[in-house]
């Protein structure tokens, strides 16, 4: 179903500038779970500890794309969360966006979302993930620059923002103004100053091997 | 060593004047007359790149024609229509054609133009385009492959001093400077106080800024810009002046407003950039009224 890959550990470590980290895992869509299985999550945990990080807690939530569910589940962990200065999320891009919307603690993606393969989770909100394969949510306050910015810009807004809205539509919020406000709110504006290298479009070509794993292939090849 | 007259003048601390022309839709070169009128009054002329996302004659070609006319062009290049291969290639072509000033822009979305169904490219953005152009200047492409013959450019970018939130705009300006922008042209300025505040904040970068001037053609145009053009706010006072002016006085009043703005910003920045939008024939009068010629 949804296919994500763990980001290289160095990238995770680099994005986590904070000392304490709370882990949130999505157990909704099988492939995500497969990638972030208990063993690889534990490995990341240990490596983070080796790098002087404090892991304040770890929970699994069925569907991180459901904000109601996140809010309900997280409310039981308020004390641990209040001791955490960051959250590391193991899910597709939607899950990270939903967590960022619910909590005002910087949330970072542990994975790159590569392929939805036709399955789109519960997806009840406005968040969208375009399977860009280089999840940028860690540098954008959990708001996806690929789906919220009409030009998919990754180095900040274009000059077209008009009264907080996008140049193409006075009713559409400018994604970069949303990103700016969120980062300001969580006191992370300095992240915006980092230059981002042009996106790697090779990653949108999903390998045929991966395609084979996906549902539509099953219904093409098997008789029910 | 300076590679363009524009760069030379700015380095010498001289006040510079730039203007712009927009190529027409088709092969008629009539519009070059506009450049001829202002030729001796300005230091360089921008050529817009499919302005407002409308398909037209290309900027690269028109820059070349300006050089033939003895005018120094500023080649505007946007990321809207070309991917990273085409952008790099066009930068090489620009150099070979004698172009030395390049203004790197993200570009308007195609939805705003006359081919709204077009695929928006935006493979690079203004910041990464500046970085790529800087790499070409070092003799390599963006992948680090060696070039057989490098380019030399005076790289510029744009900034919008009345953008909200301004911090976001200044962060982006900083990124542009880090990736190679050596001069800035601004969005049209009508609010001198805001412009002054902006200039104080960016003074520390020591990168020349050319204040943008757009002549108001009517009160309606001013209102339209206030509503629809990002980072532009024409004060009520100017709108009233234009509304009250009789038909035969409109140009005079418009030039007075333009001259007031130029005189006001002259000591705040390093030059002005006039976007005449077809009123090129009034640019010499405007400069005269502003005391610049
Ligand atoms: S940046 Fe956006 S499109 Fe890319 S993986 Fe993250 S959520 Fe998906
Ligand atoms: S106005 Fe905002 S959302 Fe629209 S293209 Fe520009 S930066 Fe992106």
How many helices of chain B does DSSP assign?
11
In spatial order, strands of the major sheet of chain B run 1-2-3-4-5-6-7-8
Share of β-strand residues of chain B = 15-25%
Task: State the domain count of chain A.
Answer: 1
Helix content of chain A: 25-40%
CATH topology of chain B: TIM Barrel
Radius of gyration of chain A in whole Å, from Cα? 17 Å
Strand order of the largest sheet of chain A: 3-2-4-5
Largest interface: A-B, 29 and 37 residues
Instruction: Write down the domain tally of chain B.
Output: 1
Helix-strand category of chain A: alpha/beta
The largest β sheet of chain A comes out as: 4 strands, parallel
Order of helices and strands of chain A: EHEHHEHHEHEEHEEHHH
3D structure, described in words:
The complex is a heterodimer of chains A (224) and B (293). Chain A has helices spanning 9-15, 30-35, 38-50, 67-75, 78-82, 93-102, 145-148, 175-185, 208-212, 215-221, and strands at 3-6, 20-26, 54-61, 86-90, 107-109, 111-115, 165-166, 169-173. Chain A is α/β, with parallel strands linked by helices. In chain A, strand 4, helix 6 and strand 5 form a beta-alpha-beta unit. Residues 215-224 of chain A have low confidence and may be disordered. Chain B has one domain (5-289): TIM Barrel. Chain B is built from eleven helices and eight strands. The radius of gyration of chain B is 19 Å and the shape is globular. Chains A and B meet through helix 8 of A and helix 5 and helix 6 of B.
């Amino acid at each position: 179903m949804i296919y994500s890959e763990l980001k290289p550990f160095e990238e995770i470590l680099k994005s986590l500038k904070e000392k304490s980290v709370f882990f949130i895992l999505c157990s909704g869509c099988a492939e995500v779970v497969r990638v972030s299985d208990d063993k690889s999550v534990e490995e990341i945990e240990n490596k983070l500890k080796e790098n002087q990080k404090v892991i304040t807690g770890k929970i699994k939530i069925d569907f991180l794309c459901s904000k109601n569910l996140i809010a309900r589940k997280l409310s039981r962990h308020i004390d641990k969360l209040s001791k955490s200065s960051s959250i590391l999320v193991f899910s597709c891009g939607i899950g990270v966006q939903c967590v960022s919307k619910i909590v005002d603690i910087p949330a970072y993606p542990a994975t790159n979302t590569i392929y939805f393969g036709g399955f789109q989770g519960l997806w009840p909100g406005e968040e969208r993930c375009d399977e860009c394969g280089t999840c940028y949510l860690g540098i954008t306050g959990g708001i996806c620059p690929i789906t919220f910015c009409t030009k998919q810009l990754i180095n900040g807004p274009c000059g077209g923002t008009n009264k907080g809205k996008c140049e193409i539509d006075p009713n559409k919020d400018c994604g970069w103004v949303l990103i700016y406000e969120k980062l300001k709110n969580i006191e992370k504006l300095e992240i915006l100053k980092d230059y981002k290298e042009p996106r790697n479009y090779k990653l949108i070509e999903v390998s045929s091997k991966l395609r084979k794993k996906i549902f539509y292939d099953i219904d093409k090849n098997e008789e029910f | 060593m300076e590679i363009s007259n524009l760069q030379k003048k700015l380095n010498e601390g001289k006040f510079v004047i730039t203007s712009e022309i927009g190529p027409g839709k088709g092969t008629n070169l009539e519009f070059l007359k506009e450049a001829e009128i202002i030729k001796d009054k300005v230091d360089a002329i921008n050529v817009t790149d499919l302005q407002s996302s409308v398909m037209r004659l290309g900027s690269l070609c028109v820059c070349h024609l300006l050089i033939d006319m003895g005018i120094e062009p500023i080649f505007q290049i946007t990321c809207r229509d070309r991917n990273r291969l085409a952008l790099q290639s066009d930068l090489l072509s620009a150099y070979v054609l004698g172009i030395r000033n390049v203004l790197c822009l993200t570009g308007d979305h195609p939805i705003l133009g006359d081919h709204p169904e077009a695929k928006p490219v935006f493979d690079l953005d203004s910041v990464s385009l500046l970085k790529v152009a800087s790499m070409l200047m070092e003799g390599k492409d963006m992948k680090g492959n060696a070039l057989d013959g490098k380019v030399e450019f005076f790289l510029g970018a744009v900034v919008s001093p009345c953008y909200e939130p301004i911090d976001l705009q200044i962060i982006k300006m900083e990124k542009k400077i880090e990736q190679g922008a050596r001069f800035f042209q601004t969005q049209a300025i009508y609010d001198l106080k805001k412009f002054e505040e902006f200039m104080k904040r960016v003074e520390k970068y020591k990168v020349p800024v050319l204040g943008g001037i757009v002549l108001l053609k009517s009160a309606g145009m001013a209102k339209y810009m206030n509503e629809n053009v990002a980072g532009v706010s024409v004060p009520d006072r100017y709108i009233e002046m234009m509304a009250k002016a009789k038909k035969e006085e409109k140009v005079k009043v418009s030039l007075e407003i333009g001259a007031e703005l130029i005189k006001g910003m002259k000591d705040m920045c390093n030059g002005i950039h006039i976007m005449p939008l077809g009123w090129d024939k009034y640019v010499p009068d405007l400069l005269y009224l502003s005391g610049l010629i």
